[in-house]
Amino acid sequence: MTEVKTQIEKPETSYNEDKLLLYLKRKSRKSGITIEATCKQTNEGFVVLKGSHIETIDSESIPSGIKDIRKKSQVDVNGILQEDVLFRSPSYAAAFVVGGHANGLTEWKAENGKTLKEIEHIHESTE
Question: What is the pLDDT of residues 65-98, one digit of tens each?
Fold first, then answer.
């Protein structure tokens, strides 16, 4: 069994407004709803923000650690997240939102439509 390095507590440090905001939007094949989530990349990791609309149905292939976090998180009956939730990786954050396996580097996008993978590549190229 692998340990999932994720925590449910609210991040201890405050967010800086210059931190990267990321968005995930897709129509769910499981429930038919449109999933719309916002995530902030911070020094601590990836924070799925309160007010995000997440999938309410877990897929059979959902990682067990993500399934546990989804059960413990405060989500209303409509799938609206009632608290910020911190993850150490973008893929765990995306899996939490979609209720199954997800590649966070391609699921999360900036406001301009660029994927996190594209943003990281651009950042690496300019260093």
Answer: 999 999 999 999 999 999 999 999 999 999 999 9
Nearest alpha carbon to residue 116 among 102, 126, 105: 105
Q: Which residues, in sequence order, are bridge partners of residue 48?
A: 39, 85
pLDDT surpasses 50 at 11? no
Query: What single-letter amino acid sits at 80?
Result: I
Phi, psi of 26 (to 5 degrees): -160, 155
d(C-alpha 43, C-alpha 66), whole Å? 21
For residue 35, the SS3 value is strand
Q: How far is CA 61 from CA 39, 70, 98, 109, in A?
A: 23, 14, 11, 24
CA–CA dist 32, 28 (Å, integer): 5
pTM score of the predicted model: 0.82
d(CA 81, CA 122): 31
Q: Quote the CA–CA distance of 24 and 106 in Å, as a whole number.
A: 9
d(CA 125, CA 127): 6
